[in-house]
């Protein structure tokens, strides 16, 4: 299924690497009881005084301690969406989306491997420019080891080859992505 870019950001093709609508709904449903409910419950408990007020203050402090960690997870989820807009790869960011012009961005392919904890990680495209570096996973949001759908990998190869037709590094990456797109089992 090909989704269009969110929020009027051109007519690009969304890549299946970021959290979708269901993941956002689950995130906010989990966030509500952890942060909002203790904050709302604080007012009536405070009015009662005594031990109830202590419980209310404890719940509020717990919510304040947990909130930054939940916010970090939310920011990570939010920043994980990418889409193609012509020769530009757009990464959803808080405040302002980050745009990677494929004609000027340096990139390299990171093969599938194992992280420091021994967990398998899927292949990725590492993008870097003067303003920073990011990792575009080539696995889906649900399972990082399962490659993106073929049409999305082909769209990515098309954008890279159109942006850099004479670059040998880009040509090698395009050939590898095309190989991955033709292999339904992914990297073996």
Radius of gyration: 21 Å
Residue share in helix: 40-55%
Compressed to H and E, one letter per element, the order equals EHHEEEEEEEEHH
Number-wise, the strands total 9
What structural class do you assign from the helix and strand content?
alpha+beta
Give the percentage of residues in beta strands. Answer: 15-25%
Shape: elongated
Main sheet attributes: strand count, strand direction, barrel closure? 4 strands, antiparallel
Mean pLDDT: 76
Give the total of domains. 2
Uncertain spans, ≥5 residues at pLDDT below 50? 1-10
Distance between the termini: 25 Å
Lateral strand order in the biggest sheet:
1-2-3-4
How many helical elements?
A: 4
Name the descriptors.
elongated, 19% strand, 188 residues, alpha+beta, 2 domains, 9 strands, 4-stranded antiparallel β-sheet, 46% helix, disordered N terminus, 3-stranded antiparallel β-sheet
Describe the structure.
It is built from four helices and nine strands, in the order βααββββββββαα. The longest helix is centred in the middle third of the chain and has 29 residues, at 50-78. Helix content is 46%, strand content 19%. It is an alpha+beta fold and 188 residues long. It folds into two domains: 21-77; 103-182, no CATH class.
In a few lines, what is going on in this structure?
The chain has helices at residues 21-48, 50-78, 150-163, 168-182, and strands at residues 13-15, 82-85, 88-91, 98-101, 106-110, 113-114, 120-121, 124-129, 132-137.
């Amino acid at each position: 299924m090909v989704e269009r870019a969110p929020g009027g950001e051109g007519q690009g093709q969304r890549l299946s690497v970021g959290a979708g609508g269901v993941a956002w709904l689950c995130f906010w449903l989990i966030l509500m009881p952890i942060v909002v409910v203790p904050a709302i419950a604080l007012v009536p408990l405070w009015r009662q005084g005594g031990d109830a007020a202590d419980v209310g203050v404890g719940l509020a402090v717990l919510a304040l301690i947990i909130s930054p960690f939940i916010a970090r997870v939310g920011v990570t989820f939010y920043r994980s969406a990418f889409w193609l807009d012509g020769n530009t790869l757009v990464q959803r960011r808080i405040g302002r989306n980050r745009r990677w012009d494929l004609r000027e961005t340096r990139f390299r392919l990171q093969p599938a491997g194992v992280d420091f904890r021994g967990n398998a990680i899927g292949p990725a495209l590492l993008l870097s420019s003067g303003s920073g570096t990011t990792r575009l996973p080539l696995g889906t949001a649900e399972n990082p080891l399962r490659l993106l759908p073929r049409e999305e990998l082909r769209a990515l190869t098309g954008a890279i080859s159109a942006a850099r037709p004479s670059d040998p590094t880009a040509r090698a990456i395009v050939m590898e992505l095309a190989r991955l797109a033709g292999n339904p089992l992914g990297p073996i």
